Amino acid sequence: MSAPASTAAPSERETRVGDRVGFWEKTALGAGWLPVFFGNAAVGSFAIPVYQMTLRLDPALLGLALALPRFWDAITDPVMGVVSDNTHSRFGRRRPYIFVGALLQALAFGMIWMVPTNWGQGAITAWLVVSLIAFYTCFTVFSVPLASLSYEMTPDYQERTRVAAFTGFFGKAGEFLYQWVFPLTGLAIFASVLHGVRWVGWAVAVLIFALLGSLPALFVRERYFRKAVRQAKVRIWPSLKASFSNRAFVVLVGLTILQIAAGMLASNLDFYLIVYYMNAGDVAAGAIWKGWLSSAYALLGILAIFPITWMANRFGKRVTLAVTFGLVFFGAAGKWLLFTPGGTPWKILLDPLLCGPVWTAINILTPAMLADICDDDELRHGFRREGIFGAIFSWIQKTGYSSAFFGTMVTLKLTGFDAALGGAQEASTFTAIRLVLTVSTALWAVLAIGLLAFYPLSKARAYEIRDALEARRGTVS
């Protein structure tokens, strides 16, 4: 039965009772995003101190090893999205894959760190490439259906932002935790750093990837399943064409590429400045200070969840993102001033004040905006294709993260960085790294604000789309 369109203005629309998602269901969904964060960001960040700083793998080889699996993801992610969209099991379209994928990715993650330490650089690189391909294949089975499930949680514009606030919270928790993973490997209970890497790596695999990853499959309800069962089969090429003909989706893809390319490049480069410029090449001390910096980002990000959620529901998601990118532009100068030797190292904890809120805004608003885009796609084409949208977005994210790591390694080579020199790098090397860190951050902010001007789905338009859909095919419960 069709629902009548509301006559209330967008600012006056209240979330219907049936559109609300319970606290514990939101929590179970959010918990699944902790392994998503670790899979996207922590693998590469953990690989740098393990494979490059400890095993002394050439930076170019490490960057290549981190980038190669992305070519495989270009095939597996869209395929997984279509498979998930077309699945009609009694357990739903998404949940069976989330559960199986959680277990498989845990096993594959643990194997990344079992590399034999007596091998040469070529063999170590090959181990890393093969183990990463295995991991990211399993990660695709898990993450693409999970992303799709998150877009389907509610049809309400404002409740989508509240749901995404939970996934954003667990993303911030991941940001808090992952930089402390490597320092744990240096505890006295381990015979060596590599011995600690293996124990800590398997602990992360079991507790985060397997245990937390399985919670959405067990405790989250699928809401669009009955509607999707009746639709025609989703096909990959028409779906890809439709996705990239959607202006809102293209803008969001562009924002994500900018976010990862500039943001992750900054996150990696500041690690090298902390270790080699501020701590004279002491990897252990630098890893601890990097942990404190990431913890400050995470804490500020958690504190920013409520104001960003309120602002997005009051003024719209596009406006909220533009404001946080504006803060990043002014925060770029701080990166030149703060990541320097001398004085108290605690000064780097000022960096998140201006550059931190944007990460919370991105983590919360991107999934909510993708859910709005899926509604727009249904209105235009008559399909619920969260799987294909989630797959494309997942591949772009993973490709971006790996490209950022590759860009970091290439940047280091171009600046003349040599790990064997420790803290005794040329002064010009440190100057070049600091310039790249500062300029890339400012440029990211300017380009992102410009791109947001072309995003077409305002709050009012999102409610118009929902009303049109419900008039055509009824409500979703």
Low-confidence stretches are: 1-5
Inertia-based shape = globular
**For the CA atoms, what is the radius of gyration?**
22 Å
The H-and-E topology, N to C, reads as HHHHHHHHHHHHHHHHHH
Written account of the structure:
The chain has a single domain, classed as Growth Hormone, Chain: A, CATH 1.20.1250.20. 76% of the residues lie in helices and 0% in strands. The protein contains 18 helices and no strands. The longest helix has 33 residues. The N terminus is likely disordered.
Give me the secondary-structure topology.
Elements: H1 23-54, H2 59-67, H3 69-85, H4 95-112, H5 121-151, H6 157-178, H7 181-184, H8 193-219, H9 225-229, H10 236-244, H11 247-278, H12 283-315, H13 317-338, H14 352-355, H15 357-381, H16 386-415, H17 427-452, H18 459-473
Q: In a few lines, what is going on in this structure?
A:
This protein is an all-alpha fold and 477 residues long. 76% of the residues lie in helices and 0% in strands.
